[in-house]
Amino acid sequence: MWGEDASDCFAGEPALIIKLTREIVEINHKTNYVKSDYHGTILVGTPGLPMTVVFDTGSGHLLLPSMYCKTEACRVHTRYRRSSSSTGRDINFNGSAVVRGKPRDSITVEFGTGEATGVVVEDVVCMGPKTNAIIDSSLWNGKDGLQPGCMRMHFLAATDLSEDPFVKFGFDGVFGLSLLGLSQTPHHNFLTVLSHLIEDRHQCASQSFGVFLANSEHEESDIAFGGWNEGHLLEELSWAPVHDPSLGHWIIPIKSIRVDDEKMDFCNDGRCRAAVDTGTALLSVPPKIFREMFELLRHESDLAGHCQGHGPMLHFEFEDFTVTLSPKEYSAARKTKKSMMRGPDFEEDSTANDTEAPRRRDFRCFPLLMTLELEEPLGPKLFILGEPVLRKYYTVYDARLKRIGFGRAVHAAAPSREELLSHAPELDGIGLKEKGLNKKGQRTHPTMFDVFRWRQALKLWPGLRKNPTKKEL
Q1: Does the reported pTM lie above 0.85?
Q2: In what order do the strands lie in the sheet with 322-325?
Q3: 216 and 266 part of one domain
Q4: Is the pLDDT of residue 461 over 50?
Q5: C-alpha angle 404/405/410, rounded to 5°?
Q6: Beta bridge partners of 122
Q7: 109: which residues sit within 8 A by CB, 6+ positions away?
Q8: Is residue 341 assigned to a domain?
Q9: How far apart are CA 97 and CA 295, in angstroms?
Q10: pLDDT, tens digit, for every residue of 135-154?
Q11: What is the per-residue pLDDT for 375?
């Protein structure tokens, strides 16, 4: 389970598993793209105040809006009040108590397009049954006299949050999961704090965690701490070493990037790297490669006007393994100005062979890419692997051995309606409006009748079958 250099490690269950809630925060109807947040709940202080947080591998602190903050970006969220907690202390970075009338330590942290300023507080943070978390109490050593799932942490109580992006957040705070290099002190770094509370027999896994993001509403997302959940893995983990752990970021070296069999020259100098970031919704690429990659990945949609099948494959090659994304992971369909051909909604490519599916011209699949330009030491050739990668792959972060593991994730076997539509377009509502019909009552999940019609469609278009499994049928 742990690899050759950690074969003597205790291979039990994680010490803590936190269930995550998926919340849709933005729908782009032009591209059919849905942006989601995955957040969990923690209890802060005594008595415990429930606060929702996003777990961010690109941050080094727990940041919570506080009653010290009067801006709109703070007031729209639940705010922590230090004076209401019997276990809370106002402190400086070195842990000393704040002296009334004397200057107090504060810090400003950048978050993408915005920033947050905060002061330091020490208090108890708990996760357990009340926060939809599962605890293996046998793995907690009971230090500090706290219950399993609870720990005493130093965190940032925000005194100011920029309106962008915090006012739009569907959660209260940011729970940083970086390596120690991004945290102000070890007392601010969650993985370091957690490791001191884990039994000695489980120390090899005490600074590791695994992230699973659900593919549909029929699954639950979760994040496991003090180990990882092997039940989410379809295959063994492949590991890559962290590049310069002193920086604090979960960054690994990229060997090369390919679109299908075409290798891109951008990474020939060996300076390309990838940050694996739970706080990023898209794939982020350096500006200098954006246009080339966009053109290579853009393609015609499949028969149903979706991006579930045909299209180029995007490969990130690391030293010992490759992470591969298909169109359904990296792209979304967008209506074009081209006329619909034959049928009248689609045309058949005259150059296609008998087994290749016909494709539409009025819908195209556009890659969901964003650009981010960074200087050294992180840039200028840094890619950010966000939600598209994290849904397809179960990722494990090991702060003790400074490495990241990837393994294809196990998702619900039942096909979604969108997956069925990719094989049988006549089940879809696309084009109904043009024919004088409406889409009221359109289902989001397939019925048995849908499946029957799908099977019939496969008989009509053998090239669409693509070796369906028993699970598909």
Answers
A1: no
A2: 262-263, 256-259, 314-317, 322-325
A3: no
A4: no
A5: 140
A6: 89, 154
A7: 59, 61, 63, 115, 116, 117, 118, 156
A8: yes
A9: 57
A10: 999 999 988 889 999 999 99
A11: 83
The predicted model gives 63-86 an average pLDDT of 95
Q: Tell whether 259 and 218 lie within a shared domain.
A: no
Confidence band for 345, pLDDT divided at 50, 70 and 90:
very low
Structure tokens at 236: 């063994």
The answer to whether 428 and 421 are in contact (CB under 8 A) is: yes
Backbone torsions φ then ψ of 218, nearest 5 degrees? -85, 0
Q: Which two tokens stand for residue 59?
A: 């941050």
Asked, as a colleague might, if the bond just before 377 is cis with ω within 30 of 0, I would say: yes
Residues 194 and 136 in one domain: yes
- Report the candidate in 386, 382, 177 with the shortest Cα–Cα distance to residue 287: 382
> From residue 113, how far is each of 116, 161, 189, 271, 431 by CA, in Å?
11, 12, 23, 25, 39
Indicate whether 205 and 293 sit together in one domain. no
Number of domains in the chain: 3
Q: Pick from 199, 228, 257: which residue ends a domain?
A: 228
What is d(CA 238, CA 84) in angstroms, rounded to the nearest whole number?
46
Note whether residue 5 is domain-resident: no
Does one domain contain both 271 and 355? yes
Block residue for tokens 């978050």? 111
Give me the helices (H) in 315-416, please.
327-330, 387-392
- In contact, 352 and 362? CB cutoff 8 Å: no
DSSP letter for each residue of 141-208: --GGGPPTTEEEEEEEEEEEE-HHHHTT-SSSEEEE---GGGSSSGGG-HHHHHHTTB-GGGGGGTTE
> How far is 194 from 149, CA to CA, in rounded Å?
9
d(CA 450, CA 129): 39
Domain shared by 272 and 295, yes or no: yes
Residues 197 and 246 in one domain: no
Q: 284 with 402, same domain?
A: yes
Query: Is position 6 within any domain?
Result: no
pLDDT at 264 over 70: yes
- Domain residues for the domain of 274 are 238-408
Q: Residue 70, class by beta-carbon neighbours within 10 Å (0-12 exposed, 13-18 middle, 19+ buried)?
A: exposed
Domain boundary residue among 228, 257, 284? 228
pLDDT level of residue 466 (50, 70, 90 thresholds)? very low
- The CATH number that applies at residue 323 is 2.40.70.10
Environment class of residue 469 by beta-carbon count within 10 Å: exposed (0-12), middle (13-18) or buried (19+)?
A: exposed
What span, in angstroms and rounded, lies between the C-alpha atoms of 119 and 142? 28
Task: Kindly state whether residue 1 falls inside one of the protein's structural domains.
Answer: no
Are residues 226 and 139 in contact, defined by beta-carbon separation less than 8 angstroms?
yes
